[in-house]
Design goal:
Radius of gyration: 27 Å
Number of helices: 11
Number of domains: 3
Order of helices and strands: HHHEEHEHHEEEEEEHEHEEHHH
Strand order of the largest sheet: 4-3-5-12-6
CATH class of the largest domain: Alpha Beta
Structural class: alpha/beta
CATH topology of the largest domain: D-Maltodextrin-Binding Protein, domain 2
């Protein structure tokens, strides 16, 4: 067993349980898998794996080889993140994951400054509201809004995201209190924040999954929302008719412990910390009002 391809073949056969399934996993045709298995059996002089009544059967030798293959795969996976990080560093690439709204309304206008400071770096941005898996190197740096995060991550807690209750400036003039309604992310479960709103009993008549589009719908008079100040201020027809007693969460800039010493990761984290803190008065308007 001197070829890693042989280990991959056995792992694919073990996982798929059929020749055709293994061929699909390996992205080759059925004949190639059958031929490689026959060569492997011939090389050992015993049947490592045979096909009996359309079922793959591994001999004791085959099972020991699979154990070795799985051990090699685990060992390689332990080094995969470090290998990927080294490749990115050599290529001067770095991946940032953050919510679309944070990019659009907080950081978009300052990214040119990062490029000017680091002209050799290629910045790859992944916009998502899900937390990228740093263990699998889906991102090098993440910006996230959360109360608590996994303990193994390292980074900086910056500022809370302040909220308020918003409506179109003419929304209440055009209807009575019994006719007002909410826009929310879903209507299956009434959010707890409704209990602390000025209209806790008003119905949810429109649901929109996208955060920014909920603000836009509200700005067009389609209902009331609990929204973020940093987004709402970009819609001139939105007015805050009541404050929210709670913030949404805090913004964090995070990375994996294995990445924190990488030069480009350190540069990006330092830049994001400074950029976000310079806009803290927009993100957390409750703190701004207390200071004033």
């Amino acid at each position: 067993m001197q070829n890693w391809d042989d280990f991959q073949l056995l792992l694919a056969l073990k996982q798929a349980k059929t020749l055709r399934g293994a061929a699909k996993l390996l992205a080759v045709n059925h004949g190639t898998v059958s031929r490689r298995l026959a060569n492997l059996n011939q090389r050992y002089g015993v049947d490592v794996c045979t096909l009996i009544q359309n079922n793959l059967v591994f001999s004791e030798v085959g099972l020991r080889l699979i154990d070795a293959a799985q051990a090699m795969q685990v060992s390689f996976n332990e080094h995969q993140v470090a290998i990927d990080d080294s490749i990115k560093q050599l290529k001067q690439q770095i991946t940032l994951s953050l919510p679309p709204a944070i990019l659009q309304f907080v950081l978009m206008d300052v990214l040119a400054e990062f490029q000017q400071q680091n002209p050799q770096v290629q910045l790859n941005i992944n916009t998502t509201y899900a937390l990228s898996d740093l263990d699998k190197s889906e991102a090098d740096v993440v910006v996230r809004a959360a109360e608590q995060l996994d303990d193994y991550l390292v980074g900086h807690r910056l500022c809370p995201i302040s909220l308020g209750f918003f409506a179109h400036r003419d929304y209440f003039a055009q209807r009575g209190e019994q006719d007002v309604s909410w826009i929310s992310i879903n209507s299956c479960l009434r959010p707890l924040w409704l209990n602390d709103s000025p209209f806790p009993d008003s119905p949810i008549k429109l649901t929109i999954e996208d955060l920014v589009l909920r603000h836009q719908a509200c700005a067009q008079g389609l209902g009331m929302i609990r929204g973020a100040h940093y987004i709402a201020q970009h819609f001139e027809d939105l007015v805050e008719f009541a404050p929210s007693i709670t913030s949404y969460a805090s913004l964090w800039v995070l990375t994996h412990p294995s990445k924190q010493a990488l030069p480009n990761v350190k540069k990006l984290i330092a830049f994001l910390r400074e950029a976000i803190r310079s806009k803290q008065h927009l993100i957390n308007q409750n703190a701004a009002s207390v200071r004033s």
